[in-house]
Design goal:
The complex is a heterodimer of chains A (72) and B (280). By secondary structure, chain A is an all-alpha fold. Helix content of chain A is 74%, strand content 0%. In chain B, helix 4 runs antiparallel to helix 8 and helix 5 packs parallel to helix 8. The longest helix of chain B has 49 residues. The chains are: A mainly alpha (72), B mainly alpha (280).
Chain lengths: 72, 280
């Protein structure tokens, strides 16, 4: 994420990073929460997989945010 | 800035019992002058007029600053050069490096155009930021979305482009089923959406805030109060406070308008830069 062509280690702006974090945190729970809701609906359950999905999505999003910083 | 309070001549300390009515989101739904009667269209409204004015103003800016370029720039030319240098040094070089120089014309134009559309909210008589209607930022964001996808596909091919945007590097294989859907939705759905909504929401809220201050200042101005000269004086004081707030927030809003134009262009540039870069 850090080596943009020609600029070496130029950091991205905080605004752009903020938007990336925001869209990860929105996308994670949305995707897996949605999948969980769908699984609940198909299996005729009520809110079993939905919370699991939301948590899983949130964990995935946080993982995606943390990993680039740990690596660099 | 019209409001219910203005139309009814309703003021504080009156004796016919009418309270303050805050401006509503009706501000952003001006009555159409011409209607086409087609579903999904809003006809010709004030937005179109303000958009035309904003377009002409930004075109005039470039015409008058660059019609006779000289090596030693004139005053007007140096203003235009200032914008170009700013966009190059602060935006495209940071996000795309030297390879991004060919996007400078696009980014500078976008910056001036969005800033002009935003500033229309402060021009007396027009007082409507074009970007406070989601349709306008959405079209610009859609254009940038198509552009960065086209840039990525041209440079890396379809497969590599989508792989770079969906599969983050350095993630162990067993985590990919969790991470790939998040990355895909984040990049291809949420990103263009937030790109547009961010500009729209800030301009919408800022304009509404200014409208509330203006309407409050008008509502609280009642020196001829039937409840006596003391309360009349108090009303003038209140009105003065609201007017002061209005002026302070107008200056603040002008700053926000510039920042939002900058951020929109910055994000556009980051997206194109990432697409050029490919896998990260």
């Amino acid at each position: 994420m850090n080596d943009r062509p020609g600029t070496g280690e130029a950091p991205k702006s905080p605004e752009a990073d903020g938007m990336t974090l925001f869209s990860y945190l929105l996308a994670g729970p949305l995707v897996f929460g949605g999948a969980g809701w769908l699984a609940d609906w198909l299996l005729g359950l009520s809110t079993v997989f939905l919370p699991i999905g939301v948590l899983l999505g949130m964990a995935g999003a946080i993982y995606l945010i943390v990993v680039p910083y740990v690596r660099s | 800035m019209h409001s219910a309070a203005q139309e009814e001549g309703c003021h504080i300390f009156n004796d016919f019992g009418c309270g303050f009515q805050a401006p509503t989101t009706e501000l952003f739904f001006p009555a159409p002058w011409v209607e086409f009667g087609l579903p999904g269209t809003s006809g010709i409204t004030k937005y179109l007029l303000v958009l035309i004015v904003a377009t002409l103003v930004s075109m005039a800016f470039w015409y008058f600053t660059t019609r006779n370029p000289k090596v030693v720039p004139t005053r007007a030319q140096s203003v235009a050069e200032l914008f170009v240098a700013f966009v190059r040094d602060q935006i495209t070089r940071n996000t795309m490096g030297k390879a991004g120089d060919k996007y400078i014309p696009l980014m500078v134009t976008l910056f001036i155009f969005i800033f002009t559309m935003n500033v229309m909210g402060l021009i007396p008589g027009l007082q409507l930021p074009v970007t406070s209607n989601l349709a306008f930022p959405a079209v610009l964001a859609l254009f940038i979305y198509l552009l960065w996808n086209a840039v990525g596909i041209r440079r890396h091919g379809v497969g590599a482009h989508f792989k770079a945007r969906m599969v983050p590097a350095g993630v162990p294989g067993y985590l990919l089923p969790v991470v790939v859907p998040i990355e895909a939705i984040s990049n291809f759905v949420i990103r263009p959406f937030t790109h547009a909504v961010r500009l729209f929401a800030v301009m919408f809220a800022g304009h509404l805030l200014l409208a509330v201050f203006a309407a409050a200042g008008f509502y609280m101005f009642n020196p001829m109060s039937p409840m006596g000269p003391v309360l009349g004086g108090v009303s003038v004081l209140y009105s003065g406070i609201a007017l002061f707030g209005f002026l302070v927030f107008t200056v603040f809003e002008l700053f926000i308008m510039a920042v939002q134009a900058y951020v929109f262009v910055l994000l556009a540039s980051v997206y194109i830069g990432e697409a050029m870069e490919g896998a990260h």
